[in-house]
Write a structure and sequence with these properties.
The protein has 3 domains: 2-159, no CATH class; 163-316, Lysozyme, CATH 1.10.530; 323-406, OB fold (Dihydrolipoamide Acetyltransferase, E2P) (Beta Barrel). It starts with a helix and ends with a strand. Helix 1 packs across helix 3 (80-95), helix 6 packs across helix 9 and helix 6 crosses helix 11 (288-305). The strands form 2 sheets. It has a 7-stranded mixed sheet with strand order 7-8-5-4-3-6-9. It has helices at residues 2-25, 44-68, 80-95, 104-126, 142-156, 162-191, 195-211, 214-224, 245-267, 273-284, 288-305; strands at residues 231-232, 237-238, 331-342, 345-352, 357-363, 372-376, 381-386, 391-398, 403-406. The chain is elongated. The model is unreliable at 26-34, 139-143 and 308-329 (pLDDT under 50). Helix content is 52%, strand content 13%. The protein has 11 helices and 9 strands.
Length: 408
């Protein structure tokens, strides 16, 4: 019994991995695996056929292999592998919190069909080893083969349920966004109250969670104690030690907001919000697919949660064309103790009136040690690595400019 269960379990996991592999590598042929964003199913019949017939082909091959190694006694109930596969597939998506992405009526029907076909194949064909060999007398005539191919082609042109698929996936995205907003809005609102910025932050959470669900994050935190993993939590922040989801969100939000402020402070006169957002996401993860999909998710969230908002992501920092006209709300004053010019930037070390030390970065500006300056307080970027200076700043604020209010 233990041997039977072990073999069937291995076959079930192998079948699951094979089906997923086909899904990832068969886009050009129409097969689509689980996706987060709405897509048009270019070949619905082929997609369904592969999902239904792959387990059957797999079980036939597995049965042949079992006969060859002398384990034919396992073949009589090999249809159980199909049952285990269907149950495992459903459980897998439930555990990963993808319930709203699935068309459950279709999943149940396909599951029943898969089990029924493999039960019939097992009883009628696989129990007798000789039935595995083709019998030409029973091969379908060429006419019926052509008719079957024609019907398959015709079915492949039919588009059913695309609108429902889009609605289902939008519902999933909005549901996750509301959940995260309710859970982490206190952390997000600490750094920005802008609704467009919140959409961008929430989209990163959703995409990261889809690819690194809770069960995976728990495992990452465990292996992270041994230095095996480097990114942790809901927002997959790079860290030298494991992070909770809440710690990850706090650091991730700071990084995104600070990156936006930095981009706007340098390119505010030339860059649209769309281009700036793209650079912000690129700073977070440079993968092209990551950038485009996070932006698409953000657009969906903004449309459903914040439709009609007139706020801009740049609300977090107010910039004028001239440094002398910069609006400073809130602001800080301090004395310059060090300046560094590099790569079109000026880095300034300031001692505030309260005795605190700030590092500032801005487009190149003329300022000297001893000058008393006024500057906007923004969220600092932590552990910023300046490649041109070969210096890692513990904390640095990227700002649009300064106002010199006194000379030393």
């Amino acid at each position: 019994m233990v041997l039977i269960l072990s073999v069937y379990t291995v076959l079930t996991l192998s079948l699951f991995l094979i089906v997923n592999w086909i899904g990832r590598h068969s886009i050009s042929r129409g097969y689509r695996s689980m996706e987060l964003l709405p897509r048009t199913d270019e070949a619905p019949a082929l997609n369904t056929a592969i999902r239904v017939l792959t387990p059957t082909v797999f079980i036939i091959i597995a049965a042949t292999a079992l006969y060859e190694i002398g384990w034919g006694f396992l073949v009589s109930k090999i249809y159980v592998v199909a049952i285990m596969y269907v149950i495992f597939r459903w459980t897998f998506n439930i555990v990963l919190d993808r319930c709203l992405l699935l068309n459950w009526p279709k999943e149940i029907i396909l599951g029943i069909i898969i089990v029924f076909i493999n039960w019939g194949v097992t009883l009628l064909l696989l129990k007798d080893r000789t039935s595995l060999l083709p019998d030409r007398a029973n091969v379908m005539s060429e006419l019926w083969v052509l008719m079957a191919l024609y019907l398959f082609y015709a079915m492949n042109q039919i588009r059913i349920g695309e609108d429902r698929s889009i609605q289902r996936k939008h519902k999933h995205l909005v549901s996750k966004a509301r959940k995260y907003l309710e859970k982490y809005d206190d952390l997000i609102s600490t750094h920005t109250n802008n609704e467009k910025m919140k959409s961008l932050i929430l989209s990163v959470m959703i995409y990261e969670n889809f690819n690194r669900p809770r069960v995976v994050r728990v495992l990452e935190n465990f292996v992270g104690k041994f230095g095996i993993s480097s990114s942790f939590g809901l927002m997959q922040v790079i860290s030298a030690h494991p992070l909770t989801d809440r710690e990850s969100v706090d650091l991730g939000v700071k990084k995104l907001v600070t990156a936006w402020e930095r981009e706007k402070s340098v390119y505010h006169s030339y860059s649209s919000d769309y281009c700036t957002a793209r650079e912000v996401i690129k700073d977070y993860n440079a993968d092209d697919d990551y950038i485009s999909e996070v932006q698409s998710i953000a657009e969906i969230i903004e449309k459903h949660l914040y439709e009609g908002t007139q706020s801009k992501l740049s609300e977090t920092i107010k910039v004028a064309n001239k440094v002398s006209d910069v609006t400073v709300i809130p602001h800080e004053t301090g004395t310059v103790i060090e300046t560094i010019h590099s790569g079109g930037y000026t880095y300034v070390s300031v001692v505030t009136e309260n005795g605190e030390l700030d590092w500032l970065a801005m487009p190149e500006v003329s300022v000297s040690v001893g000058n008393e300056i006024e500057y906007p307080k923004t969220s600092p970027l932590t552990n910023f690595n300046s490649k041109t200076l070969n210096i890692v700043f513990n904390k640095v604020m990227f700002i649009p400019g300064i106002r010199i209010v006194g000379t030393g």
